[in-house]
Amino acid sequence: MLSNNITITAKGNRRIKLNIYSGHFATGHAHVDRYISMTEIRSNAAMAAEAADEISKFFRCTPVDTIICLENTQVIGAFIAQDLIDSSHSVNSGATVNIITPGINSNNQLVFSSDMQQYVTNRNILLLMSTVSTGRSLARAAECIRYYGGKPVG
Question: Given 12, 31, 54, 134, which residue has the most CB atoms within 10 angstroms?
């Protein structure tokens, strides 16, 4: 367990807290000396709802049909969808917003099963990730969305 951390609060919402750890952290694409943990935001319902409220503000004028959740962000994704369809100030008000997660095939590629493809093809897609270091995973996910005929909108 990591113990050398500091806790900061989000600028726009003091109820959202992030733990930052110092050390050496390596991924397949990068080495970093700080790690911002999203664990509490991804797993604590109250904090996930607060984070979703902050994120959804940026997409109230953007049509969103599907939220694709990567890296255990489904709880946040569900709250974002709820904010978008409940807000009378959103173009998604009263609409259906689907929340899905892709599988990973033996080549480490993101894939959607045939029953899930309908939620991507010809749909406006909001991609939700909890970590982006170099942008490679983000690019790979955007490529997957386009491959299945979706339109990344955020």
Answer: 54
Q: How far apart are CA 79 and CA 90, in angstroms?
A: 14
Q: Cα(55)–Cα(131) distance, rounded to whole angstroms?
A: 15
Contact yes or no for 141/68 (Cβ under 8 A): yes
**Closest C-alpha to 68, from 27, 28, 127:** 127
Residue 127, helix vs strand vs coil: strand
Give the pLDDT score at 4: 80
Tell me: pLDDT of 73 over 70.
yes
5-152 has which fold? Rossmann fold (3.40.50)
- The secondary structure element, H or E, covering residue 123 is none
Cα distance between residue 49 and residue 146, in whole Å: 29
Ordered alpha helix ranges (H), 59-126: 74-86
Domains in the chain: boundaries: 5-152
How much of the chain is in helix, strand and coil states, percent to nearest 5?
30, 25, 45
